[in-house]
């Protein structure tokens, strides 16, 4: 399997909880920043931030996409149970360190990457600033980039079982 490819076999493992569940999925501080809203296992809204900012492949906090998704679904930030962010700055640290030792990237590049990681870690504060006065009750989950691709396809597919493959060679230092 090529480097950067992820594969998993998924099963639902039982029925969904009786309680409704609202999940906000985000691609933040990465090219093509976007938001998607899943309610009770069904995709109810999705938008890329570039649609609102008119900047192709916009990278940053997708605040306007989040706002649109919530409004389109008739929800507020306080209604969201879980927020899934498609990056986990805590994975592949050994690979990152080896890259720095082998490639010796510029100090500017290293500082830029560290700033990006810090932004992802401070996500909840950025969300509070983007939505002042709205309660943030949701539990935040940092999901490894490729696993986020796979899970976003499987969990709204309607299938009880599936084999999923992600090959993009990028994200969370694949």
Q: Percent of residues in beta strands?
A: 15-25%
Total helical segments: 6
Radius of gyration: 17 Å
CATH fold-level name: Nucleotidyltransferase, domain 5
- Termini separation (Å)? 13 Å
What is the CATH class?
Alpha Beta
In short:
The protein is an alpha/beta fold and 174 residues long. It contains six helices and seven strands; from the N terminus they run E-E-E-E-H-H-E-H-H-H-E-H-E. Strand 2 and strand 3 form a beta hairpin.
Any descriptors?
174 residues; alpha/beta; Nucleotidyltransferase, domain 5; five-stranded mixed beta sheet; two-stranded antiparallel ribbon; 6 helices; disordered N terminus
Can you characterise this structure?
There is one protein chain. The chain is an alpha/beta fold. The protein has a single domain, classed as ATPase, nucleotide binding domain (Nucleotidyltransferase, domain 5, 2-Layer Sandwich). 34% of the residues lie in helices and 24% in strands. The chain is built from six helices and seven strands. The strands form two sheets. It has a five-stranded mixed β-sheet with strand order 4-3-2-5-6. β3 and β4 form a beta hairpin. It is globular and about 50 Å long. The two termini are 13 Å apart. The N terminus is likely disordered.
